[in-house]
Design a protein that fits this description.
Layout (H helix, E strand, L loop, with lengths): L2 H11 L12 E4 L8 E7 L2 H10 L3 E6 L14 H11 L3 E4 L2 H4 L6 H9 L2 E8 L2 E10 H13 L13 E9 L2 E13 L3 H12 L6 E9 L4 E12 L1 H11 L6 E2 L7 E10 L4 H6 L4 E5 L14 E4 L2 H5 L2 H12 L4 E4 L12
Parallel strand pairs: 2-3, 2-15, 3-4, 12-13, 13-14
Antiparallel strand pairs: 1-4, 5-10, 6-8, 6-9, 7-8, 10-12, 11-14
Helix pairs in contact: 6-7
């Protein structure tokens, strides 16, 4: 089993194309063709985490946050980023990051795990993104199944909660006096998968020309986007909910705006720095918006319309480690997988 096999599963879970432009998700250090000896999952690939990987016999570290965001010009070990890269290379460790692409996923994403911890129901992406397109293509009946499966693998048919969804109609194609049975396949796909979808058609043509057209569809892909919103099984008093939040997210500190004296039912959230979603949370009628990294003046934006609760960056994303462990350990059984025992939170609280 090679490191590339694990990467392929991670990128099936959260395609790299969904990462933000500023991000640096993917394989940062290491040889994708090396055999996997073990995998260690973490939020941050710090020096202590690398030491833990070496001790546990793991040569692949899967982190949520990339250790390198911008290009490095020197490798002198003068800061923790350079030291991590040097140590990884010296010890043949591969470091892979799955960051904003995992943040953007509805299914098995960062915010889905967050919402699960709070017991939210009827969850939806708070701010969906990505336009939809529809492919209609006519292919020989003998090729319809392999082409359909290849289109699914390229990202087609899995949108708005549906998985591997398509439509097929049987007909007869004619050319001169010749005729043959053909199938018209129709499949929806996110706009950013257009190149991959076209590649599938080109790979299967083998000298034939498949008539096709692609049209834009109104609406957005509700399976991809930022944040999440859902409802509690029953309304809760504000202080009661804050106690639940502290317990379920394993945090002793919540910074929040003034309580409004209303029951909480609809909850909006975003792991990490999600302040940019406040207007969306308000527009969707959320009673509380939970995220991290709020600045002093930004708390005023609650404007007595909603409660803002900042639980801390690490605290809001810590269960991503468990999520990634579950995905990979359920898929592969021929190497050891571990959740890190190192708390990489750089923020401490004094009580």
């Amino acid at each position: 089993m090679k490191i590339q096999d694990v990467i392929a599963e991670l990128e099936h879970l959260a395609p790299p194309l969904y990462q933000e432009s500023y991000d640096n998700a993917g394989l940062i250090v290491g040889d994708a063709q090396a055999e996997v000896s073990g995998v260690l999952f973490c939020l941050d690939s710090t020096e202590a985490v690398l030491d833990e990987a070496i001790e546990k016999g793991c040569n692949l570290i899967v982190a949520h946050h990339p250790i390198v965001f911008k290009g490095l010009k020197r490798f002198t070990g003068k800061n923790y980023v350079e030291r991590v890269v040097i140590k990884a290379i010296q010890n043949n460790l591969a470091v892979y990051a799955i960051h904003t692409n995992l943040d953007s996923m509805y299914h098995q994403g960062v915010n889905a795990k967050f919402a699960e911890r709070l017991g939210l129901k009827d969850t939806e992406i708070l701010s969906p993104k990505g336009k939809l397109k529809k492919l209609s293509v006519v292919v020989p009946t003998t090729l319809s199944d392999p082409i359909r499966q290849a289109l699914f693998s390229a990202g087609g048919g899995s949108i708005n909660g549906l998985q591997q969804s398509s439509y097929a109609s049987l007909g007869v194609g004619t050319q001169g006096v010749k005729s043959e049975a053909q199938v018209r396949l129709e499949i929806l796909f996110p706009e950013d998968r257009t190149r991959a979808i076209l590649s599938v058609l080109h790979e299967h043509q083998d000298g034939q020309l498949f008539p096709y057209d692609i049209v834009s569809i109104e609406g957005s892909n509700a399976a991809v986007g930022s944040g999440m919103i859902g409802v509690l099984p029953k309304k809760m008093a504000e202080k009661e909910f804050l106690k639940l939040l502290k317990k379920q997210m394993n945090t002793d500190c919540i910074r929040h705006t003034a309580l409004l004296g209303k029951k909480i039912k609809t909850v909006a959230l975003c792991g990490g720095s999600g302040g940019f979603l406040l207007s969306k949370a308000k527009a969707r009628g959320a009673d509380i918006f939970i995220t991290a990294d709020y600045k002093y003046h930004e708390f005023f934006d609650a404007d007595e319309q909603i409660i803002i609760a900042d639980i801390g960056h690490y605290e809001s994303e810590q269960f991503t480690i468990e999520l990634l462990y579950e995905v990979i350990s359920q898929k592969f059984s021929n190497f050891a997988a571990y959740c890190t025992e190192v708390n990489t939170n750089p923020v401490y609280y004094h009580y």
